[in-house]
Amino acid sequence: MQVVRYKPEGLDALCRNTKFSRKELQIMYRGFKQECPTGIVNEETFKEIYAQFFPQGESSQYAHYVFSTFDRDNNGSISFEEFVVGLSVLSRGSLQEKLQWAFSLYDINNDGVISKDEMTSIITAIYDLMGRCSEPFVDENTIRDHVDRVFQKMDLNKDGFISMDEFMEACRGDASISKSLGVFDTVL
Amino acid sequence: MAAVAAWLPFARAAAIGWVPVAQQPMPPPPVNREHNRTDDLMKINVSGRRFETWRNTLEKYPDTLLGSNEKEFFYDEDAKEYFFDRDPDIFRNVLNYYRTGKLHYPKHECITAYDEELAFFGIMPDIIGDCCYEDYRDRKRENNERLLDDKDSEDGDNVPLASMREKLWRAFENPQTGTAALVFYYVTGFFIAVSVMGNVVETVPCGIVPGTFDNPSCGDRYEKVFFVVDTACVMIFSVEYLLRLYAAPDRCKYMRSIMSVIDVVAILPYYIGLFLTEENDDVSGAFVTLRVFRVFRIFKFSRHSQGLRILGYTLKSCASELGFLVFSLAMAIIIFATIMFYAEKNVENTKFTSIPAAFWYTIVTMTTLGYGDITPETIMGKIVGGICSLSGVLVIALPVPVIVSNFSRIYHQSQRTDKRKAQKKARLARIRMAKNASGAAFVARKKKEEERIRLQELGQEPEDKDDADVFELQHHHLLSCLEKTTDREFTDMDVNYNGQPTKLLGTPPLTPTMSVRSRDNKNRTTGCCARKSSRKTRESLETEDLNDINVTQ
User: B110 burial class (0-12, 13-18, 19+ CB within 10 angstroms)?
Assistant: First the structure.
C-alpha cells in the first residue's frame, strides 16, 4: 500500500479559482492536513468522518454519494483542490451552481437524468442518517411516498425521469428551496 | 469529536443535497457569536521548557484546563506566556492530545504521576487511544492491587440492588463476602470430610467381637452409627444442592454444570439405597455397588480448593495432548506385546497365553514397575523385554514437559483472553456512551431552546446564556436540518440494564412539570423523563464499570 503524498498548487492559484480569501484557505488547509497528513482523502476516511457527525445512524451510503460527487476526476480520492473547489461552490456559489451540484449528487450514474431508482437510493441514504432513534417510525412506505411526492413535484413531463432543466425549473419555482439553499452560506 | 471540526463546514455544505427533497423548509443557521476568531500563537512554559501552539488547537477541548479560561489563572503578564510548574515530559503527551486528538501513555512513566498530570489538566483517562489503552489498564490494575494489598481492606460487594436470590448466589460463589457465607463454607467442608472419612473407616476391621471369632468391619458392627452419620451428611448436601439450585441465575445451565452433577451423584446412592431396602433384598447387591459412587463426594472439595479446579481445567484443556500421549503409548504397547507373545508362546507353562495377557507385561515393564509376576524365558523374549523397558523410560519421560509447558501456556493464554475480552467490552461501552452522549446532547439542546423560547413568550428573561462553542451550534443546526428533511425527530436513547439500547417512546411526564408548549403537537420526552433516563444511563454505566473490574480480576 503506497502512501501517496500530495501537495496542492500554490495559495494564489487556489485563491483565484475559488471564492475564499487567503486566510480562509490557510485555516482550511491546516485543518485538512491535520486530519489527513498525506494530503488526500480516500473514501474510507471520508466515511469515518461522516460517521462522527451522525453517530446514531448509518452514514456510509450517503457519504459514498457525496464522495463521488466531490471526486471530480473519479480517481477514488479527494485532493485539497477538489475539496476547496467543491466547498466554494456549495457555500459561496450562485443558486444555479448549487442546484447543479445537487443534481450531480442525485445523478448517481452520471447519465444526465435522475431515475426513480436513483432518487430512492438517495432518499433511503438520507433516512439512514437518522438511524433508529427517530420518530415517527420509518418503513418502506415512508420512503416510497417521499419519492413519489418529489417526482410529482419535479417530473413535469411525467416520463419517469427528471432532467436537469426540469430540476432547475422546479427548484427555482419553489421559494422555500431557494431560501433554504441560502442557509448554508455562512460556512466559515 | 472536536478534532473533526475542520470537516464540519464540509458536512454542512454537503447537506445542500438534502434541500431539494426536504419535506419542510430548513431552520435558520445559528448566529455566530464570536466573529473575531483570530488564530494566534500561544506560548506555554512548563517548568522552563517552552511549547507553542495555536490558540485554536487548545480550544478544541473546552472542558479541559488549557481549553477553557481556567488557564488565565496561570498567565504570566511580564513574560506574556502561560507558566505551569509541572512535569514537562508528561506535558508533551498532553499537548499532543490537543494536536492529534489521541492521548498516548508512555510506558516508562509511573502510572500515578501520569494520572496526576491528567487530573491537573482536566483530561479524563478514558480517552487514551487504543494503542496505549491496554498498557494503561494493566498498569492501573497492578497499582490498584498493590494498594489493596497494602490497605488489607475488605470492600465486599457494592451493588446495593441485589435481591435475596442474588445475594445468596454471591454468598455461595464467594465465601469471603460475609460471615454467614464463611460459616456455611466451612460447615459443608467439614461434612464432606466427615462423610469421606466415614466411608473409609467403615471398611476397616474393627476388632474381634468378644465371644466369637469374627472380625467384622466397623461398618457392620456399628451399623446404626454410620447410618446416622451418613443420613446427616446427605441431608446437609441435599439442602445445599437445593439452595444452590434456587439461587442460580440460570437454572438449566447450572444443572448441566459439572459441580452440580457431582453433587447429584454424591447424594443419589443414599436415596436409591433407601428405596431399595424398602422393596426387596434381591437388588441389595446393586445397592452395595452403588456405595462405590459415594467416593465422588470427595470431588465436592474442588469448590473449596482453587488448585483442584485449576488442575481439572488443565486436564480438560490438555485433553488433545493427553489423548495423543495415550494413543502413542497404546501403539507401543501393542507392538511390544505382539512381539513378546510370538517370542514366548512356545515356552511351557508360559504366562504369555495371549496378546492381551502380554499387555500387562508390557505396561509393567514400560513404566519400570517390574512386578515380576510374568517374565520372559526365551532369549528373544529377554532381548525384546530389555528394549521394551529402555524405550519405556523415554516414552514416559517425554510427555511430562509437554504437558507442563501446555499448562503454563494455556494458563497465561486464558488470562490474556479474559483481559482482552474485558477491555473490548469496556471499549465498546465507551464508544456507545460517546454516541449516546452526542445524541443526547442534541436532544438536550433542543429542549433548552424550546424552554428559552417558552420563557420569552411568557415575558421572562432566559436565565443563562448558553455559551456552547461554534462547532456544537453548527453541528446541532445540521442535525435539525436533517430532521426537517425527513420530517422525523431524534429521540433520546435509553440504555437498560442489559446494555441493549431501547427506544424511549414519547412517555408522558411523571410529575406535572412545565410541559405546556404553544407550538408542540408531537409526543416528546420532557425534562423529567430525560433526567430519569440519564440517571438510568449513569447507573448502568456504573454497573458496567463494576463488572469490568470483576472480570479483569
Answer: exposed
Report the complex ipTM.
0.76
Name which of B7, B13, B490 is nearest A91 (Cβ-Cβ). Answer: B13
User: Domain range holding A25?
Assistant: 11-92
Does residue A3 lie in a domain region?
no
B18-32, B43-57, B155-169: least confident range: B155-169
pLDDT band at B16 (very low <50, low <70, confident <90, very high): confident
Has residue A57 been placed in a domain?
A: yes
Decide if B269 contacts B293 (C-beta within 8 A): yes
Instruction: Report which residue type is found at B529.
Output: C
Find which of A56, A67, A104 to mutate to test the B interface (most B CBs within 10 Å of its CB). Answer: A56
Strand partners, A79: A40
CB B56 within 8 A of CB B470: no
Same domain, A15 and A60: yes
A103/A86 same-domain check: no
If one compares A81 and B43, the residue with the highest pLDDT of the two is B43
Whether residue B521 is predicted with pLDDT greater than 50 in this model: the reply is no
- Which residue of A31, A66, A133 is in closest CB contact with B6? A31
In percent, the amount of chain B with pLDDT more than 70 equals 76
- Domain membership flag for residue A129: yes
Beta bridge partners of B469: none
- Residue B150 is placed in which grid cell? 497494602
Kindly state whether residues A30 and A70 are assigned to the same domain.
yes
Domain boundary among the residues A54, A75, A92 is at A92
Q: How many domains does chain A have?
A: 2
Does A29 share its domain with A110? no
3-state helix, strand, coil in chain B (%, to 5): 65, 5, 30
pLDDT band at B365 (very low <50, low <70, confident <90, very high): very high
Q: Which domains does chain B have, with CATH numbers?
A: 41-154 (3.30.710.10), 164-304 (1.20.120.350), 310-428 (1.10.287.70)
- Tens digits of per-residue pLDDT, B99-150? 888 899 988 889 989 988 888 888 888 888 888 888 888 888 877 866 765 5
CB-defined contacts A:B, below 8 A:
145
Nearest to B12 among A179, A180, A184 (CB): A184
Q: Domain check: are A30 and A87 in the same one?
A: yes
Average pLDDT value for residue range B77-88: 87
pLDDT in tens, B331-347: 999 999 999 999 998 88
From start to end of B425-522, where are the E strands? 489-490, 493-495, 501-503
Grid coordinates 459412587 are at which residue? B293
Residues A57 and A108 in one domain: no
For B115: left if phi > 0, alpha if psi spans -120 to 50, otherwise beta; the answer is alpha
| Subunit contact A183:B482, Cβ cutoff 8 A | no
Average pLDDT over residues A9-29: 78
**DSSP H/E element including B42:** strand B41-46
Best residue of A183, A187, A188 to probe chain B, by most B CBs closer than 10 Å? A183
On whether both A134 and A152 belong to a single domain, the answer is: yes
Q: Is the peptide bond before A136 cis (omega within 30 degrees of 0)?
A: yes
Cα B415 to Cα B217: distance, rounded to the nearest angstrom: 49
Give how far the C-alpha of residue A46 lies from the chain's centroid of Cα atoms, to the nearest Å.
12
Does A100 lie in the same domain as A87? no
Residue B383 confidence (pLDDT) above 90: yes
- The rounded radius of gyration (Å) of the Cα atoms in chain A is 18
CB A66 within 8 A of CB A105: yes
> Which of B24-28, B379-383, B428-432: highest mean pLDDT?
B379-383
Q: Is residue A2 part of a domain?
A: no
